Each structure stands twice: as C-alpha cells, then as structure tokens.
Amino acid sequence: MSRARISFWGIALVFVASTLPLGAGCYNFSLHRTAIPLKKGQVAFGGAMGYAMVKTVEAEGQDLQFPTFSLPYNDYWFRVGVGANTDIGVRYTAPAGIGMDVKIRLLRAGGFHLAIDPGVSFNSFLFIHRVDLDLPILLTGELSRHVKIYGGARLFYSHWMCSFDENDLGADCSEAMSSADSVAFGGFVGISFEFGVVYIRPEVHYYRMEFPSSGIDLAVNVIQPGIGLGFRFGGAPDPRRVPAPPNYGPPPGQGPPPNYGPPPGQGPPPGQGPPPGQGPPPATTPPPATTPPPATTPPPESSPPPPPPPTNP
C-alpha cells in the first residue's frame, strides 16, 4: 500500500475519529469541578452540556481547509467525598463513554485551593474506540460563600483503536489507528455559583490535539464552552451556616445542673421563657435578723450596815 494512500486514509480517519465522537458527546473536555473536594460522606450528582468548536489546523504539512464547526456534547456525573481532601467521581458521556477520577487537594491557604484530578476513561463511537488518561491541575479562589472562580492546566493522552476491518477501508483504519496516540494540552477557566445544595458552573476550554507517535502530521484546535448543573447532599455541616445555640440552658438531651440559671444578663430573648426546668432558682428570703437581748442593769452596791449605838456602862 502506498504511503500516499496510508496518509490519505490515516488523515481522514483520524480526523473523523477526533470530530465525530465530539459530536456524539464521546470526546469532550468538560470538567465542571473546582479544586475543593466534597466533605467526607457528601455526595454530588449532575449533568452538563455545551459545544466543541473544532478546526483542523495542519495535516502532512498542508492546510486541509476544513471549516470550523460546532458539535454538541452532554455528560452526567456522580461524586462522593471519601476524606478531608479527597473525593472520587464517575462520569457517563453519551452515547458510550465511561470514566472515573480521583481528586486530591494538595494545598489550602485561606480561600485558595490547589488540587490534582487524575482520571481514566473509555469511549466508543461506531468503529472508533479510545482509552484516555487525563491529568488536570485545578486552581480555585473563593470570592464569597456563593461565588468561586476556578481554572487550570490539563494534559490529555489518548490511545485510539479501530474495529472496522471487514474490507480495504478497515485495513487502512486498523493500520492508521494502531499507532495513532494523541496528546491534547491546554487550559480552562470557569465560575461556580453555589446556593444551598445547587451549583451552576459555566466554563470554557481550549486545547491543541496532536498525534506525535502516528507519523501523521495532524493538529486540531478545540474550543469548548459549556455549562453544568449539579446538586450535593450530606456531609458535615458548614460551621458558617449552623446557627449559634441559645445562650441559656444545657445542650439538648441533658438536664440542667441543680439550681441552674443563666449568667447575669444572658437570659432568653424577649418574650421567650427558658426551657422547662431550666430557669433560675426561686429567690429565697433571708431569715430576719435576731435582736440582742436587752442589757441588764447590775444591782446597786449594798451599803455597809450602820454601826451599833454606844452602850452606857
């Protein structure tokens, strides 16, 4: 088989493999994740949709002049927090893509977070199949409790396979795909709006995908905007959202100590009484003061008896 024929079918098939799966949602770069992991025991699920705008830049040293076009994608995810700095997620990308990832937070400094999120996935569309290894580096800054901005860099390695081998086209497909490993590199930025259990995350990605080991000089630029909607439940409560307990009474489920009463100036709110049995002890009346006995007057001193009268001899 001539080199020209291999190059033609190789370029055509790799281009189809890198664009049609995008249209089917198989090959999309969406994340919709911040560097902040879920709390231990917390779960989250949601979905995303958007468009991948694809343009082939160069093939075999020549511009193929393919027009820029947009292809839709959609995927769904489920995540669970497994530690203070770790959560695990699985994702389904329609129509036939599955994957998982492990997010690990490496640094937290105030409202700044840094994490890595390595993942692996398998995708299939018609006769084209692909195994992906993914390494995003996530950065997140907390602007407020409800708004966070995130972004980062990403490296994406893909191994391509072909199962369409029933005729001469299939032989070209297998030969072209047997060594068609691609590398995509680029970055992304997004913003997270969070209200209670709901979060909304619009984001945009830019990547350049090349095939360095295939012998085919092909490069594809991908710009992909999208938006995700998710929900999360459970986990430890946010201490900033837990109301302070009343400043009177013992903790729930415990009785007050004997003669318990709130400290001075820390009684219940106006118009509310303390819980039953937790009021101050009743006021006690001090015993009346005892009066000392009246002073007694000492008896007058007795005068000596008068001398006897003299007697005459």
Helix-strand layout with pairing:
Layout: H1 3-23, E1 43-59, E2 69-81, E3 86-93, E4 97-109, E5 112-116, E6 119-125, E7 128-142, E8 147-162, H2 168-177, E9 181-195, E10 198-210, E11 218-233
Antiparallel strand pairs: 1-2, 1-11, 2-3, 3-4, 4-5, 4-6, 5-7, 6-7, 7-8, 8-9, 9-10, 10-11
Outline the structure in words.
- The structure is a single chain.
- The chain contains two helices and eleven strands, in the order αββββββββαβββ.
- The chain is rod-shaped.
- It has about 325 residues and is mostly beta strands.
- Helix content is about 10%, strand content about 45%.
- Strand 6 and strand 7 form a beta hairpin.
- Helix 1 crosses helix 2.
- Residues about 1-25 have low confidence and may be disordered.
- Strands 1, 2, 3, 4, 5, 6, 7, 8, 9, 10 and 11 form an eleven-stranded antiparallel beta sheet that branches.
